[in-house]
Amino acid sequence: MNKRQTRLFAIASTAIAALVFIGMTIDSHRQFPKLTNAQNITPAVRSGQDVWHKYNCINCHTLFGEGAYYAPDLTKITQLRGEQYLQAYMKDPSQFYDEQRHRRLMPKQNLSDEEIKNLIAFLDWIGKVDNQGWPPRPILVTGATIPGTDMTAGQQADTSGQKDAGQLPPGARPQSGNENPIALGERLFRSATPACNACHSIAPGVNMAGPSLAGVASRAEKLIASPDYKGKAKDAAGYIRESITNPSAHIVPGAMYSANGVSFMPNTYGKDLKPEQIDHLAAYLATLK
Fold this sequence. Notes:
Layout: H1 3-35, H2 43-54, E1 62-63, E2 66-67, H3 77-80, H4 83-91, H5 113-127, H6 153-160, H7 181-191, H8 216-224, H9 236-245, E3 258-259, E4 262-263, H10 269-272, H11 275-285
């Protein structure tokens, strides 16, 4: 190939590459409305975006993997947690933390009910954007060593050894009458005997000694409506309570978490936990969409 041919080849290659790039750009812009659910951008969503920026949420959290890495990625948070959980969490994050155990705490921003409602609407719109699977995996808080939990292995061993059912880990705040039941249930999830998070993750697809509880509320609704269900619960909330107090009431066919019709999950929670503790635990699990 002589110099003239080389020059023509370079020009033609550049032109073809430019045309391909322009075509892909036009095609991407053509799909943006569909991929981003532009038709669902309501005034509440726009107001929620303003709340997100007003309180500098991106200084700690990420959306689509972009932002700071001090706290979890919130891209799909509304697909994992129900609105009740998010409302309670944003209203007073301190109820969901033990300051003596957690290295980082979300500050209480004193958001109004309207701001919380709009922020959830914004996050729900974000969660329904077709992000083509990005980020490829959940972004965990730095220091978390057990997927789906906020405890290290050593801390988990400490709480799983509590002698009194429902007793909080050493140094945890005592319960007060005005604490949110969902927050109490999440705390109990980590501190009951044995600790629920010793066997269950709340991260999607992360199965431990027991199955992941991510999406347990949605699965419960489908199971209750299925003719294969063998338990006595009438609704999803009842199924969650039944799974806590009588785990062998319904055995999922083919699951590896039972043998001879008996669940591997301890059947002692119904006796060891107080009725209100079971209510709190069930309220928390019902938020896992």
